[in-house]
Specification:
This protein is of the alpha/beta class and 423 residues long. The chain is built from 17 helices and 14 strands. Helix 16 links the parallel strand 13 and strand 14. It starts with a helix and ends in a 7-residue tail after the last helix. Keywords: Iron, Lyase.
């Protein structure tokens, strides 16, 4: 790799051991990828959350020691100091207020709070969400970022036109300490061009429709760059959020184009950038295939867990849930959980939505991702969700049965205890 004088100085240890070890990680990473250089970033989103088993295995009570070993692969522990560039923590593996409803303990809660204090100390903003763009971290078009979390990556690459690959804990931690990330993949113009042209030949009108389209696109296109045509109605932000999350979980998509809607291209020709694409169609048969695949692990229609908020819900989505449950009651024995970022929850409290949902028997949770933390109610066996991503992951991780449908169908399942959704 070709390094600047500044980068060589970091690699030589002139900015301390932490920066030196971080730069070593980035150089090895870049060389493995075939990157010729690094690029500056001032927007990093990563994962610096410790589990008690990791602490015990590392025989340490220090977050500095744990993450210098775990995330930077340093045999010599170091103090992090403060991160060099603006950085945030993505979602975590537990809900700090309702942890007892799952399998977490008081020991987990204490470790979590200490972890939050440490993040603040080193300058990492504890946004604790997979949707930081909903709570203040909104990259601009062309901005080079270093983000983890598949649904966040595909959103900012596509909808906002920022530039990032789906990074890992090691590369994002190193980027926090150096302000650098390898220049490859979706940082480069040539890799952002469309590879598959998909004609959408059936109406895509609801969030449920967008989830099914995303799941099919991910399964078929895998990790390439789809270009969609035939979208007749302008989607709202949350529809694109759920589309990208389903596409990323089903196949690893990190970038897509809807010419005239997403950021990088106004036309199909601009999106393709001279590529000769594979041409496909998404019609009623493909939609049904995606629906049946997402619901293939469900046999029992007696629902005991309804999960909404993957990716984390926006304030508009929380408002819709409050409207649907107001004056109704969640059936006894059914856990009704809605996941949001902390700041969205605060706003939902001010708007009165949390009070409505709680009066109905539901809970509005923060900071956590059920799939990441396998965070679900004790003894839950059958889940209903409006998230293609969650319907894909949680059954595989925990063995729970799952039903995918609209938010309206999920609320009905919560109230009746019975899944009655259909395509």
């Amino acid at each position: 790799m070709i390094l600047t004088d500044e980068e060589k100085a970091m690699l030589d240890g002139q900015e301390g051991l932490a920066v030196q070890k971080a730069m070593e990680i980035l150089v090895h990473y870049g060389e493995a990828l075939g990157a010729e250089r690094l690029v500056d970033t001032r927007n990093v989103g990563g994962y610096l959350i410790a589990r008690k088993d990791q602490m015990k295995q590392a025989n340490t009570d220090s977050f500095d020691t744990l993450f210098s070993q775990l995330n930077i692969d340093s045999d010599e522990p170091f103090e992090f100091g403060r991160v060099k560039v603006p950085s945030c923590q993505f979602e975590t593996d537990m809900e700090p207020d309702y942890y007892r409803l799952s399998d977490r303990t008081e020991e987990d809660k204490i470790l979590y709070e200490r972890n939050m204090d440490w993040l603040r100390k080193i300058g990492v903003k504890p946004m604790c969400t997979c949707t930081p763009y909903q709570v203040g971290n909104v990259p601009v078009r062309g901005e080079h970022c270093a983000w983890m979390e598949s649904s966040a990556v595909v959103y900012i690459n596509s909808v906002l036109g920022a530039r990032t690959n789906c990074e890992g804990t090691e590369s994002t931690t190193a980027a926090m300490l150096t302000g650098k990330i390898p220049y490859w993949g979706y940082h480069c113009d040539e890799h952002r061009r469309g590879t598959h042209l998909i004609r959408v030949e059936t109406p895509v009108l609801t969030q449920k429709d967008w989830g099914l389209l995303g799941y099919w696109v991910g399964k078929i296109v895998q990790d390439k760059v789809p270009v969609l045509t035939g979208i007749d109605r302008l989607p709202v932000r949350d529809m694109l959020k759920h589309f990208g999350a389903a596409a990323a979980s089903a196949g690893g998509i990190e970038m897509y184009h809807i010419p005239g809607i997403t950021a990088d291209a106004h036309t199909v020709e601009e999106a393709l950038g001279g590529n000769h694409p594979v041409e496909l169609k998404f019609g009623p048969e493909e939609k049904r295939w995606a629906y049946e695949l997402l619901n293939s692990c469900g046999t029992n229609t007696d629902v005991d867990f309804v999960m909404l908020g993957c990716p984390h819900y926006s304030i508009d989505q929380v408002e819709e849930v409050a409207r649907l449950v107001e004056g109704r009651h969640i059936k006894d024995g059914v856990a009704f959980w809605v996941f949001v970022p902390q700041s969205i929850r605060d706003l939902a409290v001010r708007c009165g939505y949390v009070d409505i949902i709680e009066k109905a028997g539901g809970l509005v949770m923060r900071d956590c991702c059920p799939a990441l933390g396998q965070f679900k109610p004790k003894g839950a066996h059958v889940m209903a969700t409006d998230s293609g991503k969650q319907a894909h992951y949680l059954p595989n991780f925990t063995g729970i049965e799952s039903w995918y449908g609209s938010v309206e169908e999920c609320v009905e399942a919560a109230v009746t205890g019975h899944w009655g959704g259909e395509l």
